[in-house]
From TrEMBL:
InterPro entries: ADH-like_N, ER, GroES-like_sf, NAD(P)-bd_dom_sf, Quin_OxRdtase/zeta-crystal_CS, YIM1/Zinc_Alcohol_DH_Fams. Residues 10-306 form the Enoyl reductase (ER) domain. Pfam families: ADH_N, ADH_zinc_N_2. The keyword Oxidoreductase applies. SMART domains: PKS_ER. This is Oxidoreductase. It comes from Psychromonas marina. Keywords: Oxidoreductase. The lineage of its organism: Bacteria, Pseudomonadati, Pseudomonadota, Gammaproteobacteria, Alteromonadales. It comes from the Bacteria.
Amino acid sequence: MRAVRIHQYGGTETLQLDQIDTPTINADDILINVKAAAINPVDWKIREGYLQQFIPYKLPVTLGWDVAGVVTQVGTEVTDFKVGDEVFSRPDIARDGSYADYIAVKASEVVLKSDKLDFAQAAALPLAGITAWQCLVDVSQVQAGQRVLIHAGAGGVGHLAIQIAKAKGAFVIATASAANQALLTELGADQAVDYALGALTEQVEAVDIVFDTMGGEIQANSWELLKAGGMLVSVVEPPSEEKAKQYGVKSAFVFIEPSSRILTELNKLVEADQLTPLIEHRFSLEQIEAAHLQSQSGRTRGKIVIEVN
Ligand SMILES: NC(=O)c1ccc[n+]([C@@H]2O[C@H](COP(=O)([O-])OP(=O)(O)OC[C@H]3O[C@@H](n4cnc5c(N)ncnc54)[C@H](OP(=O)(O)O)[C@@H]3O)[C@@H](O)[C@H]2O)c1
């Protein structure tokens, strides 16, 4: 089968389209014929070697940790799936990924995809959707009527976070460049903020939750936007505990894990027409370098999908 692998860490030139054996599955795995995979910033961060300390890969490794496809084989212990099922998953990041014709995934990390999603949309949802749900619902416990600020609302995580927060009844404020202001409103944001127009303290009234997908100065400038007792949740860098204490707020850092529970919740929102992934860029496996460069640009609206089969 075809698989895009890296044999060493480095730039996009390390992405190599190899011919390799189809993976063998464990008793608790299923084998998925990949219809679509999605790109996430973690893919190129791993490619560059930034996460070597946390995830010690034995190279070569196949990249890509979002998948939608069709079950072609089930392990001897698997009872929840059968050959032919249409599924999606954010599989274990420590195993070979989804930029390939086939991927072996633990059945417990897989969910049947909603008929309302095509394969590309289903591949666009898991990693970014689980991230947004975990931060807003599980960790921040967003409540109806709360004010939620979502940084980078036009991005892969942010555009799903806006929809999830709206579905939970929050008043949603989201940031983007001038070019993406209309998109924020289309996604359901109650207030669209152009971050280039000045300090957010001048543009945004106090909020209950800040969802930080940017880190750095953007995170540092977020403390004073929070009401006392509010929550700053980041997926980029652990917020300072000292600052949280100083401002009388809570803070959390989240690094996501596979979750079929959350995928099931995302499916429910899809079925209720409250959640639709936006795909702005489609590539083939052969175009993987261009797909990574698009993700690295930091300017992607919605998601980047690799159409595999
Ligand atoms: N810890 C975890 O488990 C976890 C999980 C998922 C993602 N992440 C991390 O979260 C980050 C975001 O991921 P993603 O997939 O959403 O990335 P992405 O899709 O590449 O984000 C691109 C978006 O960022 C926006 N942006 C750029 N500069 C901005 C600024 N100064 N203010 C507001 N928006 C800005 C862009 O909008 P404009 O062009 O309009 O500026 C663009 O739409 C990445 O660093 C990723 O690695 C971590």
